[in-house]
Amino acid sequence: MESLSRKERWIILGAAIAGLLFDGVELGLMPIASLSVTEDLMGDQYTAAAGGDWFARFTAALMLGAAIGGIAIGNLGDIIGRSRALGVSILFYSVFAGLGAFVQTQEQMLLLRFLVGLGVGGVWPNAVSLASECWPDKSRPLVAGLMGAALNSGVLLLSQIALYWHITAESWRWIFFLAAFPTLLGLIVFLAVPESPSWRGVQRQGASPQVSKKGGSLWELFRPPLLRVTLVGIALGAIPLVGAWAASKWMIPWADKVGGASYPGYKGMAQGSWAIGAVLGSFCGAQIAAYLGRRTAYAAISIAATLATLVLFLGTQPLQPSFLPLVFIQGFVVTLYFGWLPLYLPELFPTRVRAAGSGIAYNVGRFATAVGVFLAGLLFAWQGGSYPAVGASCGLIYAFGILAILWAPDTSKLSLDRQDPV
Questions:
Q1: Terminal-residue alpha carbon distance, the chain
Q2: At 262, is the secondary structure helix, strand, or coil?
Q3: What span, in angstroms and rounded, lies between the C-alpha atoms of 141 and 283?
Q4: C-alpha–C-alpha distance, residues 242 and 235, integer Å
């Protein structure tokens, strides 16, 4: 198998990290801008309940798009190559995010958030597969941690921008212009970033064209012997995603509602506190998995995430001294998953279907997330617009991770170059 130079490996890692960094910006954009967008577009018809309802709709649209994009563009990475599919993903999320600056109705924004989601979903499986296949096994926990941290560094970056340049009902379109900035990055990645030697090796063997004639490597994942690991991967990826979007993200509009009138930058402080914890947590997740073992680490994270979320929503509230420290702790704990996942999910699948398999495992959970967020919006209205009630109720999803990990195989000693299933 061909080898990469040290310079080429660093270029690949840099491209993967940059793609995930701006992916994080897109994921953090609507939690911090949604209420301002809705208040402006609805005008006199705006209410706090409507703000929460549209936040849930925007999130559900993004998650639905990400689920479809993660599967379709993840599969594309097994066909045309990881680096080119990564470039396509970045172009999708940056171009359609930029068009959000021109919307005149909530429905237009809803459609654009779905299209942004296609790119958001496609970045993760291709970036993770590309970087994982291009670095030696001993470096992979560090590489996985850096990629997990990159995603949440994007959320942190956005929070700091919002802290100093406020997003309000009178001034929000500028943030969508800014979100179009990675368009140039997408073109560079598509045209100039080296490809995975493992993927090229499979291409030379003729595996990919053969699979493509059967309709794409996607379908192999839903037949034995890969069906079992695909289902396990979906469950393990779905729990942290549903928890993050159906539960954790409510803290930002909660902070905006309670503190926004007297302190417009407070929601930026809340998202910044969460994001700092998230950057550290998503980096440490892979290191904990390497130290404790994949299965033990996931179970421990699930217990801690459940407790941290309940304490945040039931034990404090915005503007209290304990709120921002607890936001930081919750952000750290629940994002340990997102350092664990880029280490574990590529290990489940052989090279020929790794991008598609990782994309399905990570992103099918977003279908559940879209449904979960929509139901959380209904629950929010049913509970009288109570942010702590909906956050605490939905946070119980993390407890299911303790059961899901029981069916997961131990992959710590498996080679990424294998062609056989676990």
A1: 22
A2: coil
A3: 9
A4: 11
Both tokens assigned to 336? 């340990």
Does the residue 324 lie in any domain? Answer: yes
Residue 101 lies in a domain: yes
Query: Helix, strand, or coil here: 170?
Result: coil
d(C-alpha 259, C-alpha 253), whole Å: 10
CA dist 355 → 53, 66, 74, 83, 131 (Å): 34, 15, 5, 11, 11
Give tens-digit pLDDT for 103-152: 999 999 999 999 999 999 999 999 999 998 998 888 889 999 999 899 88
What is the token pair recorded at 201?
Answer: 């090796």
Please give the structure tokens belonging to residue 254: 């909660």
151 Cβ contact list (under 8 Å, min separation 6): 20, 21, 23, 24, 27, 124, 282, 338
**What is the sign of the dihedral through the CA atoms of 264, 269, 275 and 281?**
negative
Rounded CA-CA distance 189/43 in Å is: 41
Residues 205 and 75 sit within 8 Å (Cβ to Cβ): no
- Asked whether residue 382 is domain-assigned, the answer is yes
Q: How far is CA 264 from the centre of its chain?
A: 27
- Does the N-terminal peptide bond of residue 350 adopt cis geometry, omega within 30 degrees of 0? no
Amino acid residing at 82: R
Per the structure, how many domains does the chain have?
A: 1
pTM: predicted TM-score of the whole model, two decimal places: 0.79
**pLDDT digits 0-9 by tens, 303-331:** 999 999 999 999 999 999 999 999 999 99
Query: What is the domain-level CATH number for residue 50?
Result: 1.20.1250.20
Q: What type of residue sits at position 105?
A: T
> Per-residue pLDDT tens for 286-301?
999 999 999 999 999 9
Would you say residue 419 lies in a domain? Answer: no
- Show the domain range for 402: 6-191+214-407
In this predicted structure, what is the pLDDT of residue 2? 60
